[in-house]
């Protein structure tokens, strides 16, 4: 895909119980784009109202991207 060709680092953070975006659709997009997928158990839509104020896997992804050679 054009997105994959333009983006060397793709990370997906998918909750197993998202009520806004069905997890099956998130997995389908992840399969299409490739990259690394983290499943967040009972994460809802990963909103503050779902109890998320931090998302350590996303921080780790940023660190990995910044450490990668250009």
Any overview of this molecule?
- The protein is α+β, with helices and mostly antiparallel strands and 70 residues long.
- It contains 3 helices and 2 strands, in the order αβαβα.
- The chain has helices at residues 2-6, 23-33, 56-67; strands at residues 11-15, 36-40.
- The protein has a two-stranded parallel ribbon with strand order 1-2.
- β1 (11-15), α2 (23-33) and β2 form a beta-alpha-beta unit.
- The longest helix has 12 residues, at 56-67.
Which tags fit this structure?
70 residues, two-stranded parallel ribbon, alpha+beta, 3 helices, single chain
List the helices and strands and how they pair.
Layout: H1 2-6, E1 11-15, H2 23-33, E2 36-40, H3 56-67
Parallel strand pairs: 1-2
- Looking across the biggest beta sheet, what order are the strands in? 1-2
Structural class: alpha+beta
Helix amount, in percent?
40-55%
Q: Give the total of beta strands.
A: 2
Radius of gyration: 13 Å
Mass-distribution shape: flat
Give the biggest sheet: 2 strands, parallel
How far from one another are the termini? Answer: 21 Å
- Summed up, the helix count is 3
Question: Uncertain segments of ≥5 residues (pLDDT<50)?
Answer: none
Strand content: 5-15%
- Average pLDDT, to the nearest integer? 94
Order of helices and strands: HEHEH
């Amino acid at each position: 895909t054009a997105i994959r060709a333009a983006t060397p680092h793709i990370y997906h953070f998918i909750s197993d119980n998202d009520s806004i975006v069905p997890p099956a659709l998130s997995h389908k997009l992840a399969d299409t784009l490739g990259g690394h997928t983290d499943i967040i158990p009972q994460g809802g839509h990963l909103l503050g109202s779902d109890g998320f104020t931090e998302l350590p896997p996303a921080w780790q992804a940023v660190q990995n991207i910044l450490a990668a050679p250009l």
